[in-house]
Design goal:
CATH superfamily of the largest domain: Glycogen Phosphorylase B
Largest sheet: 6 strands, parallel
Oligomer: single chain
Number of domains: 2
Number of helices: 17
Number of strands: 12
Strand content: 5-15%
Structural class: alpha/beta
Shape: elongated
Length: about 375
Amino acid sequence: MEALILTCSTGGGHNSAAYAVAEALNLRGHNAKVMDPYSLVGERVAKAVGGTYVRMVQISPSLFGIVYKLGETYRRLPLKSPVYAVNSRMAKRLEKYFDENKTDVVLCTHVFPAEMLTYMRNKGMKIPKVVFVATDYTCIPFTEETVCDYYAAPSRDLNDEYIRRGVPDEKIVHTEIPVKKAFRDGPSKAEARKALGLDPKSRYILLSGGSMGAGKLRTAIRVLEKRLDADDRRLIVLCGNNNGLYSLLSDYYGGNPRITLLRSTGDMPLYLHACDLFIGKPGGLSSTECAAARIPTLFISPIPGCETKNCEFFVNRGMAATVRSIRHKLLPAIRRLESDSASSKMARQQAKYITGRGAENIADLCERIV
C-alpha cells in the first residue's frame, strides 16, 4: 500500500499523529510518506503557515481563542469558509503530485489538507480514498465542510457531536488519536530512568509547554521551586521549540541542580515512563500520550478552543485533573495526585478509555478500504 499522510506544522500534535500512523503502516510493510502539502509550493511557505499559528499561541493564547470562536461562529453560516477558499489554491499542485506518485490512500491529520482534497473532489478531480484523522477531542471548526471517505474519531463518546456538525454517521470510525507505540509499550520506570541518566531514587515532575513552549511555565516553576528544596523532588521542564523561553529560563534556573531544562526532545516516551507526574497544557496528542503511558496528569493553561475541550474530556472521565489558579491550587492538586489511591484510580480510567492503539486501528482501516 502506498499511503500519503498530509499534515501541517500548526502545533506539533498534527505532525506527531502523522508519524505515528506512518510508523504503524511501515511496520506492516506498507510505504507511508508524511508530507506538508504546502511544501509543494516551497519549504518557506510551509514553515510560514505553521509559524504564524505558533507565534500567535506563544504571544497571545487568548487571541487564538478569539480566532477559534470566529471559526465556531462562521460554521453556522450556509457558506464555504475563507479557509476552504485559501486551501483550494493547492488543488493543481496536489493533482500533479498524484499524477506522478502512486497513492492508494491519503490521510489528513489536519483540516487544511482535507479542505484541499474536498475542493478537488468537488471539481471532479481524481483523488485516492481520503481519511480525516482527528487530533483533538472535539469536532473542530470546518470539519463539516470537508468531504472525506472516513473520519477517524478519537472516541465513540464524540459520535453525536460529529453527526450534529454534519459528518455522516456511516463515515465515522472510532479509532482513538494515534500515538507511537513507544508510549503504550514503553520500558519500566527504572529502565527509562537509566536510559535518560536520571536519579533512580528521586521523584520527578515533567512540566511541559508542548512543542510550542506555551502555557504559564514560569509561574508553575516559581510555585514548584519552593517544594523542590523541601522534598527529594526534581523538575524537568520541556520548552519545545520556544528558544526564547529556553534562554529566559536558563538565565533564571540554569544553575539549579534540581531543575533540568530541555528544548524539543525525541525521547518523550521515555520521559513519560520515567517521571511520576506530568503537568502541562492539554493538547490532543500530549493528552493521549500521557494516558497511553499511564502517568498521573495535571492540566494547566489550556489554549482556548480545542484544548479547553480536550481538558473537559479527560477531566470528566477521571483521566486527568486540572487547576485554574496555578499560584493557589497547583501544590494541593499535586499532593492529591501523589497518593497511591488517586494515581491508581487515574491509571484505571486512562486504561478504560485509551488503549494507545489508535495508529494501529487507523492502519486496520486503511487496509480494509484499499
